[in-house]
Specification:
Shape: globular
Helix content: over 70%
Number of strands: 0
Structural class: mainly alpha
Low-confidence stretches: 1-20
Distance between the termini: 17 Å
Largest sheet: none
Order of helices and strands: HHHHHHHHHHHHHHH
Strand content: under 5%
Mean pLDDT: 81
């Protein structure tokens, strides 16, 4: 009887024939997703004096610490260029890693709603993405402070960062959807993902300059898709124009990613209530 109820609830939630796709329903439910994500932030930091700004302070301390270490390793002082490069790299990386890690546990975290209500599952994914980007907006305060203090400056390339940010948001959605289904079915994947992301942080040019790498080691950068996502946001904000090739690679990853997410969604949505 429990399985029948769960299956019925999921059928209503997952969008059967005649209903719009997951991404389209999320677009129509943007306000609901935003309200739910904001409530998550409020509840998580209840009774805290500065709320999610504690995470922003953590990013600031991490940026300053890594800047000192990176300057010592690669030479030079803790210049404005190094601070801006490292800071924007960490802020952008936090969006990528949070989208993947939070996305991986999305359905497991909302198991009681999935099995007991007829809420559309797009609300859970949208909730996760909006929560990530609310925290990102708090982190971006550091960029505003860097502008005021002169560590970075505006240039004609700065508006291009909005294009990179839009692509990052679009990719966060398919990554969260794909990982939410896979990790609900195979729980060990989330643990593996956490370990791989720790490794990816060090082999991705988040805090080290990719232009200093030896020619025979360029494959570390060239075949690292995270690098392109970071650079199309960080580069324009630092006055650099990313090559067109970076955008082509990101768009290609976006199309392939949504294809994978669609296949997983079609294959696993009806069994989701039993996975969680």
């Amino acid at each position: 009887m429990t399985k029948v109820v769960a299956s019925t609830a999921l059928d209503l939630a997952s969008g059967t024939s005649g209903h719009p796709g997951l991404a389209l329903r999320t677009f129509k439910n943007l306000r609901k997703c935003l309200d739910w994500a904001w409530l998550d932030i409020v509840c998580q930091y209840r009774r805290s004096k500065i709320g999610p700004l504690w995470e922003t302070i953590n990013v600031l301390v991490m940026t300053l610490g890594i800047t000192v270490v990176a300057s010592a390793v690669f030479g030079g002082g803790a210049t404005a260029d190094v601070i801006g490069y490292v800071g924007l790299g960490i802020i952008t990386w936090s969006v990528i890693s949070s989208s993947m890690l939070e996305g991986a546990s999305t359905f497991v975290r909302n198991a009681s709603y999935i099995t007991g209500t007829n809420l559309s599952i797009d609300l859970y994914v949208g909730r996760t993405i909006f929560k990530t980007f609310i925290v990102f907006c708090h982190h971006f305060i550091l960029y505003a402070l860097a502008l005021v203090t002169g560590f970075v400056s505006l240039s004609w390339t700065s508006p291009l960062a909005l294009v990179g940010l839009l692509l990052l948001i679009l990719n966060s959605y398919w990554m969260a959807t794909f990982l939410a289904f896979v990790c609900a079915r195979y729980r060990d994947v989330e643990i593996i993902l956490r370990n791989l992301l720790q490794l990816a942080f060090f082999i991705t040019p988040v805090f080290w300059d990719y232009r200093l790498i030896a020619g025979d080691r360029q494959f570390i950068v060239n075949y690292n898709v995270f690098f392109y996502f970071i650079e199309i946001v960080r580069g324009p904000l630092l006055g650099e124009l990313p090559p067109l090739r970076y955008y082509v690679i990101v768009v290609a990853v976006t199309l392939v990613g949504y294809g994978l997410a669609f296949l997983v969604y079609r294959q696993m949505r009806r069994q989701l209530a039993f996975y969680v």
